[in-house]
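Sequence only, no structure available. Ideas?
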Amino acid sequence: MTDTPLPQVDPLTIDAAQTVIAEHGLGGLTLERLAEAAGASRMTLHRRHVTRRVVVDALLQRAADEYAAALWPALTSPATADQRLSMALHAICTVADEHLALLAGLFADTESPFHSLADGSTTDAETHDLFVAPLARLLRDGVSDGTLDHVDDPTETAAVLFNVIGWGYVHLRHAQHWPSERARPAVVALATAALRPRQPD
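Reply:
I predicted one. Tokens follow.
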């Protein structure tokens, strides 16, 4: 029995996939379009064992790596948790700006490399833990140091936060053409204010 060769997805092919998705959405990512954008043939992609699923997984890994690098300063900072959460949300906006066309192309698709169906579910898609876990950690840290309000389920709140900030920011930047200096402080201030402890009346 021989092992199945590992897919060979080079950075050029991943870049080509980003271009196709930005123009046609995730649903429009076909091997024909991918091959054309990459300057290759479908046969070349086939020999490299490159499929649509493999390319989407590669895009997810690239996004996760960039996301982790962007959030690392917020996770390791000695600042208070509410300040670190603000840093993290600003970082999400920075990454979104770097891939605005791609994210806008993904926005209307029901399939997304950032989400997956929960086990046993056919309707509820869950945000990948790669994107949720850092924010959930900051929410827990905020309860510990008293700078953020208690939430019943930090993981669920973190998933909502990631999607509200990420997609809300993309919509303001892409569809409403807000400059980053207007959109970024608006969404970050709204989120952090909602999560800070309530002041007594």
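The chain has a mean pLDDT of 86.
Hope that gets you unstuck.
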